[in-house]
Backbone:
């Protein structure tokens, strides 16, 4: 029987749309990376990031990366839900 712990994939999805107040998402991601790096089992985590996500990017990122953990950093409130970047119309 193997004692190896499977690698956990963490996906960070970040959005700070233009019409919203600025967030310090870069600091938040830095703190997460630093915490993982300092942990005893840092080699058991893979961290992937997607920035300025639009609603359609979320499904694609989840499908492409297949994460065990998803961390969303951005705006949201009550019944209106989360705020994402707007899709540019051509």
Residues:
């Amino acid at each position: 029987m193997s004692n190896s712990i499977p690698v956990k994939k963490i996906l960070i999805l970040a959005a700070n749309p233009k019409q919203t107040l600025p967030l310090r998402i870069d600091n938040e991601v830095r703190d997460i990376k630093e915490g993982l790096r300092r942990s005893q089992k840092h080699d058991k985590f893979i961290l992937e990031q997607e920035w300025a996500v639009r609603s359609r990017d979320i499904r694609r990122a989840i499908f492409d990366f297949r994460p065990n953990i998803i961390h969303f950093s951005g705006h949201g409130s009550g019944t209106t839900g989360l705020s994402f970047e707007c899709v540019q119309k051509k």
Observations:
- Residues 25-38 form the longest helix (14 residues).
- The mean pLDDT is 88.
- The first strand starts at residue 8 and ends at 14.
